[in-house]
Amino acid sequence: MRVEVKELQRSYGEITLTPESADDLWHLEHLIAIGSLVFATTLRSVEATSDKIRPEKQEKRQVRLGIRVEQVTFSEYVTRLRVFGVIESGVDIGSHHTVNVEPGYQISVIRTWHKVDLERIERASKAGREEISILAIEEGEAFLFQLRSYGPKEVFSIVKGSGKGADCDNRDDFYRIILDNLTSIEGPLVIAGPGFIKEDLAQRYRRRFEEKKPPLVLETRRAGAGAVQEVVGLGAIDKLIGNMQLTHEISTIEELLKRIAKDEPCAYGYNDVLRGIEFSATETVMLVDLLLREKQYTSLLEKAEQIGADVVILSSRFEPGERLMALGGVAALLRYAV
């Protein structure tokens, strides 16, 4: 993400942001708050006044618009962010318009920025562009995931067996199909899973792709998407690309679950978390990103920041975020019970 801070006064002001990847678009989804004013150069249908014969004819022209945001939607499948709202500056003031933001498309966002927002911007601006791939494999099944800022994205799955839905019926074909699908993979590769099959595949990978960097092989208790969480939680990805937010999410939610099991100081659910903040007992507040659109939760984060508590935003697209949603979407680690 390319970032240019125009001017901030008491946390309010304009920041120009240029996304460079799908990860950046996902960050933008949470940086463009409802009610923000977004400026962008976009296409807008305007009347072609030079056409005297058909004055009703419409054509699209590039215009600079300022839109008061009503809805923001990110689609990872088409790598696009849709920003919808009412035009406040430019042509057709008062009309609705949608800006389609893609990598390389610059926008300016004017709003009140919280500490957690600025930390997200800094993290996005420093993020590397190298993709990390994790192949989760066990006897008879293999899944390839690519890590995004919002969690793992499944690229392919291969099943070995003789039944319906199997992609192959013997181990050699199983390995061959996996390796064929790994041909186009660039960047670091991690092969993980229970048992010895991962070492066997890794040896074949090294022989076939001598020009590529050897994969990192890790033992996990779980397979599939669960193996990905274990890999990230082990800190292996941090060693490859530096500090990663997903690792922080996993360690934080695991600490929460441990405290719940041992009846140690923690809180979950809006009312209990608010109580912990009001008593200044809160060390860390964690919130699922889906709730950032709701005013009561943004107000909760402001109060947490005022007492110096850390704030961790968990992706709803990754298992730690799903676990937190089951607990009400918000939780806190406390210094002492309240």
Put the structure in a nutshell.
The chain is an alpha+beta fold and 338 residues long. It is 32% helix and 35% strand.
Structural topology:
Blueprint: E1 2-9, E2 12-18, H1 22-31, E3 37-47, E4 58-75, E5 80-89, E6 96-101, E7 107-112, H2 115-126, E8 133-138, E9 141-148, E10 151-159, H3 171-182, E11 189-193, H4 197-208, E12 216-219, H5 224-233, H6 236-241, H7 245-262, E13 266-268, H8 270-278, E14 282-288, H9 295-306, E15 310-314, H10 319-326, E16 330-334
Parallel strand pairs: 8-11, 11-12, 14-15
Antiparallel strand pairs: 1-2, 2-7, 3-4, 3-7, 4-5, 5-6, 8-9, 9-10, 13-16, 14-16
Helix pairs in contact: 1-2, 7-10, 8-9
Describe the protein's architecture and organization.
By secondary structure, the protein is of the alpha+beta class. Helices cover 32% and strands 35% of the residues. It has ten helices and 16 strands. The protein is globular, with a radius of gyration of 24 Å. 33% of the residues are buried. The model has no long low-confidence stretch (mean pLDDT 89).
